[in-house]
Amino acid sequence: MDVVSFCADLVGCRSVTPNNDGAIERIAQFLSPLGFETKILVFESPDGSNVVKNLFAKYGNSKERVLGFIGHSDVVPAGEGWDSDPFSAVCEDGFLIGRGVADMKGGIAAFCCAAAQFIRQQFDGTIELFITGDEEVGSSEGIQSLIKWAAENDLIPYDCLIGEPSSSIQLGDRIYLGHRGSLNVTVKSHGKQGHSAYPSNYKNSLSNLCKYIAKISDYQWRHKNKKFPQTNAEVTLLFTDNCATNVVPEWSSANLNIRFGDDYTVKELEAVLRQEAEGFDGLSFDFLLSGEAYYCDNDNLKDILSLSIKEVLGVAPSFSAAGGTSDGRYMIRQCNVIEFGVPDSTIHQKNEKVKIEDLENLEKVYFSFLEKYFA
Ligand SMILES: [Zn+2]
User: For residue 278, what are the domain limits?
Assistant: First the structure.
């Protein structure tokens, strides 16, 4: 099966996290006849509320060179307003359109097709695929559990390629070597309820919170390590349970999402938020780390991937640590990680699309990468 048909086939599975709708099985069915050992692994959260299907596939038994590929088979919900059925991929004006074509069923299809072609020749090494089912909602029963399982079974690769959409304007213009960390903060403001006409009787939790949020939004974060974009803190939610026009709310809360480079530890970020709260009454904080910043400067991976891109596409890629974090933040604790895939301009949007030419060229880049990696 060619890369476009395989991608379209995967789009037909309504694999909105945590559902899989046969996507994992289809990938296993593609790889098994080629000689890959495939193992479908279902992991469950401790309370049993989250059940996720994943695939581990392996070709070769050499421990000398082991290359991993990470991809997620789940997609975000389609949402409203599509011009065509999001779960029935259509080809139009040179594009393939459907939920997940770019993020990231196209990347999975391209790597599978490249590997199918590559293993026809003799090579000394092992290819492993880690295909997960919950990347879009935190990866706990996906890559985190899969890595744990692989470590227990001595199957951790030396290097890992992630097929997430890393390119920007055109295929090949950007490789991700890392991502910023992500810290979620809930700030609660506690005041005293009252009639808005009687200022001496109340303490307005909401205006207190708004002033604090304004201060944090203007905070000058230091930026020494230019490999990462500048740290930024964004307000993502303001909430209070009052809807009366003449009542001052007793409490209110705000969510902040902080994206940070390795200029900051999580402890330091927490300290900044607390220190900026000095002079404010009744603020309390909850912190939830969703991922540390990471950066992988492995010369071999950078060299052979950029050479492959240059040969196939005639493009010199930039190296970046921008963008949202990926499952690389977990695999980096085990091995080298590099991330390359199609342009990201329509991911998580309606009418998500990818150039058919880009899918075909991505397969060629992955093929060339495999040749150089195992040379
Ligand atoms: Zn993705």
Answer: 181-291
Cα 127 to ligand 1 centroid, rounded to whole Å: 21
Give me 337's structure tokens: 């990680």
Check: CB of residue 45 under 8 Å from CB of residue 18: no
pLDDT in tens, 307-353: 999 999 999 999 999 988 899 999 999 999 999 999 999 999 999 99
* 285 and 342 part of one domain: no
Whole-number Å distance, alpha carbon 232 to ligand 1 midpoint, is 22
Question: Are residue 139 and residue 31 in the same domain, yes or no?
Answer: yes
What is the total residue count of the chain?
375
Query: How far apart are the C-alpha atoms of 154 and 65, rounded to whole Å?
Result: 14
Domain count, the chain: 2
Q: Report d(CA 27, CA 32) in Å as an integer.
A: 9
The answer for 235, left when phi > 0, alpha when psi is -120 to 50, beta otherwise, is: beta
CATH number at residue 91: 3.40.630.10
